Amino acid sequence: MERKRSGNQDSLQRMRQEADRLLLELTGADRVLRQASPVFRPHADVYFSKAANAMIVRMDLAGIDPTHIQLEAKERVLRVRGERHDPERADKVYQQMEIDYGYFERVITLPAVIEPAKAEARYENGFLEIMLPLPAPTGSRTIPVNVKESPGQAGGGADKGVAGPASSKGGEQ
């Protein structure tokens, strides 16, 4: 008895899936859905280069036309999108298929703020390498601390600059 119920549930599930597929196909929504969701996720290495003072992202994108790759960089985020095509796929009957084709997207959160305007990318031997320069370090300066005297103290409540160990007297720089 259990076996028959399980078989009926499998048949019902297959019918639902087929009805969903036909509905999507008839409305054209299957094309929209395929474009909207990534089919595969390319591998990426992310590392810091001391010599270049930049974050480097290297992605394995073999077989992808570099003109079909879109890059977008913001302060700490890199977005890489594209598509791998197989134009000869229609006339083939596969025994085994392990290469992913279709749309892909990777959003990589970077460990440091970058300068997107100075980013560079190159595609060579199936790898996309993106150099994302870090901002130049800002210099430091000594900041004087102003101490306000209470009205009962000499000096009539005027502010006086207190110099730190590296600054000159009076809080001047």
Walk me through what this model shows.
This protein is of the alpha+beta class. The protein folds into two domains: 1-37; 38-133, Immunoglobulin-like (Sandwich). The chain contains two helices and nine strands. The chain has helices spanning 2-27, 29-36, and strands at 44-49, 54-60, 70-74, 77-84, 102-109, 120-124, 127-133, 145-148, 159-162. It has a four-stranded antiparallel sheet, with no helix packed on it. Strands 3-4-5 form a three-stranded antiparallel sheet, covered by helices on one side. It is elongated, with a radius of gyration of 31 Å. 9% of the residues are buried. Residues 30-35 and 166-173 have low confidence and may be disordered.
Question: Brief description of this entry?
Answer:
With 173 residues, this protein is an alpha+beta fold.
Q: Helix count? A: 2
Kindly give the count of domains: 2
Assign a percent range to the helix content: 10-25%
CATH topology of the largest domain: Immunoglobulin-like
Topology record:
Blueprint: H1 2-27, H2 29-36, E1 44-49, E2 54-60, E3 70-74, E4 77-84, E5 102-109, E6 120-124, E7 127-133, E8 145-148, E9 159-162
Antiparallel strand pairs: 1-2, 2-7, 3-4, 4-5, 6-7, 8-9
List keywords for this structure.
Immunoglobulin-like; disordered C terminus; 173 residues; elongated; four-stranded antiparallel sheet; 2 helices; alpha+beta
